[in-house]
Amino acid sequence: MAGTVMVKNDGVLPLAPASVTGVAVIGHNARHARTQGGGSATVVPERIVTPLDGIRAAFRPENVSYTVGAVVQEGIAELPLEQLRNPVTGGRG
C-alpha cells in the first residue's frame, strides 16, 4: 500500500514553533527510524536523528505527543504451525 499527500501552502508553512501548542506524532517509524536497507545493504550510521527526535528539537518537547499507532512487524511474521494444513489431506503440516 502506498500513499501521497499533497499540501498547498497558503502562507501557513513553515510553522512558527513558538505558536504551536500541540503536535501529534503517530507511527512506529517516527521513533525507530529505518535509515538503510537490509541484508548486505545495511549500513549503521554513527548517529541517527529520528523524526520524533527532530520534531521534539524543533518544538517544545512538552507540546509533542507520540503514539505508536499501528504495530510494524520486523522481518517476516512467523506463521503458527496449527494454522498450516496439507492442501491434499487437510492434515496439519
Number of strands: 2
Bin the strand percentage.
Answer: 5-15%
Query: From the helix content, strand content and strand pairing, which structural class follows?
Result: little secondary structure
| Distance separating the two termini | 31 Å
Question: Average pLDDT, to the nearest integer?
Answer: 83
Poorly predicted runs are none
Q: Estimate percent helicity.
A: 10-25%
Total of DSSP H or I helical runs spanning 4+ residues = 2
SSE order: EHHE
Rg calculated over all Cα atoms: 21 Å
Please give the largest β-sheet. 2 strands, parallel
User: Looking across the biggest beta sheet, what order are the strands in?
Assistant: 1-2
- Assign an overall shape: elongated
Describe this structure in words.
By secondary structure, the chain is largely without helices or strands. The chain has a domain at 20-83. The chain contains two helices and two strands. A two-stranded parallel sheet has the order 1-2.
List keywords for this structure.
two-stranded parallel ribbon, little secondary structure, single chain, 93 residues, 2 helices, elongated, 13% helix
Quick summary of this structure?
By secondary structure, the chain is mostly loops. It has 2 helices and 2 strands; from the N terminus they run E-H-H-E.
Layout of helices and strands:
Layout lengths: L22 E4 L1 H4 L19 H8 L5 E4 L26
Parallel strand pairs: 1-2
